[in-house]
Amino acid sequence: MQNMQNLLAALEPFLARVVSEEVDKAIRKSFPCSINRSPSLSIQAPNDHQSTLQLSFNKRVPLKTFTGSRILDIEGNPMNIILVEKTNNNQIVPTSLLYPIKLEIVVLDGDFPLHEKENWTSEEFNKKIVKERSGKRPLLSGEMNLTMRDGIAAIGDIEFTDNSSWIRSRKFRVAVKVIHHGNNQSVRIQEAITEAFVVKDHRGELYKKHYPPMLDDDLWRLEKIGKDGVFHTRMNSEGIKTVQDFLKLAVIDTHKLRKILGIGMSDKMWEVTLKHAMTCEMGSKVYIYHEPQFVIFLNPICKLIKAIINGHEFSSRGLNQINKSYIDKLVKEAYTKWDELEEIDGVLNHNIALLTQGDQIVNQASLVTTHDQNIASYVPSNKAQMGGSEWSLSQGFATTSFENDFSYGFSGLQSDGEMTPSGSGLSDVDGVMRHL
């Protein structure tokens, strides 16, 4: 009997190694990402200060979330917990254990760990667990207990029930700790923690700003304009209800817009609001204002793209003062008749030809003059009579044609060399429109 026991004792390490190798082979076949089983569990002494095994979140989390909203990673996907091991050269590699690990999700104070250190004791961790306020529901709702198998555990639908404003750091962390793992409880597995983040009440989500804003967004989606606040109310009373309305008036008459907002909006606040509005997605719509003598093409915020006057094409660049003044007048007329303008989308060349073809025929018939009159109008003075105004036709002026795949670049309301509507009071400084 003694000999048999000695034989079994001698065979035990060999059998354990064979079983371990076979299990590793099976895991590698099931998980191509090559998660390795930790080889150190059978010999590692318990050490609460330095653990080679750690739980870890697979992705970062957003820096702000809301009560009642599922906690997701920064890419908007459900979070996973993985088991990793720190090697001797401080590399972090995925690993797994042969048995399931029972986990619990908890909330930590955002100021843990002190000085952002990478290691802590179980006692230090447990002291920073945050519980619900008196009379409140549990701070987290959902499935708080998980089981990790093969080195991974999926976090289900969990959400906060209270904001983080009532603790000193004003931030929370979500953390996961081990509550049971097989028979070898002497092996410490360090807890996983997320980045510190702010939790706001869900009602705040309904009032949050948009980045970037959309043209049809309500005004209060812009920074420094609160929903139903003074600025919001004043602009609404003047018919300025959307981001598009705001930007159109900023282009046409900044002085009027600033007067509507009042002295309560400082220059600094104005710059913040306007800079935010300027990040708006412009889209590809073009608005057309035309009469028999002209066609004006505007972008969605009433900024000139180009003009066709009596068959002559002009862009917003290179205009002399006479031309600029006349176009200013037409653009302002278009602004007052915005709801009557024609709207086109997409490729412009073909649409422009269709829109202007008939007008040009009528225009040519209505403006028939003798050869001598044409000479008098164009040659001596180098000016043309158009709609009762004189236009200077520069010899070196080159018109600008549209590209087939036209799209707007919107880094600012004005670009170098582009016209600014007279009286608008806008100046482009470092890409930010400033009030003069």
From TrEMBL:
This protein's UniProt keywords: Activator, DNA-binding, Nucleus, Transcription, Transcription regulation
All residue ranges annotated as the Calmodulin binding protein central domain in the record: 214-280
Region (Disordered): 417-436
Localization (cell): Nucleus
Domain Calmodulin binding protein C-terminal: 285-344
Boundaries of every Calmodulin binding protein-like N-terminal domain copy: 53-202
InterPro entries from the UniProt entry: Calmod_bind_C, Calmod_bind_M, Calmodulin_bind_N, CBP60
Cellular component per GO, a single term: nucleus
Domain of life: Eukaryota
Gene Ontology biological-process annotations: regulation of salicylic acid biosynthetic process
One term of GO molecular function: DNA-binding transcription factor activity
Membership in a protein family: Belongs to the plant ACBP60 protein family.
Protein name: Protein SAR DEFICIENT 1
Organism (species): Pisum sativum
Lineage: Eukaryota, Viridiplantae, Streptophyta, Embryophyta, Tracheophyta
